[in-house]
Design a protein that fits this description.
This protein is mainly alpha-helical. The protein is 77% helix and 0% strand. It folds into two domains: 46 residues, no CATH class; 58 residues, no CATH class. The chain is built from six helices and no strands. Helix 1 packs across helix 2, helix 2 packs across helix 3 and helix 4 crosses helix 5. Keywords: Membrane, Transmembrane, Transmembrane helix.
Length: 110
Amino acid sequence: MTNEQVIHFGELGVPEACRECIVRDIMMVDGVEYDEAMKVFEKIAKTNREDMPLAALPFYTGVFVSVTAGYVSIPLVFHRGIVEWFNEKYVTAEMPPVEDLETWLEVGSV
């Protein structure tokens, strides 16, 4: 492809064209052939991905915490024993009469 075509597709966000723009820039700046510029580009790409797991750690931590909180909230809403314990330790609200807590659905609606 011509330089104009590569730049055009690069501006459109085509990943292969963006890579080709970088490789051609390396060729021009370093004064090397295409094969050598590809080696330099691969080294740059490898260095760019080195800390990717560390950068993604907040994302994975957030997903783990939210999924765990979702599963923990189920017994905190529907299990009578856990609801009574949590209310006694943290909430201290007045509990409804026992006849209003006969099923797990009634516990969850209170």
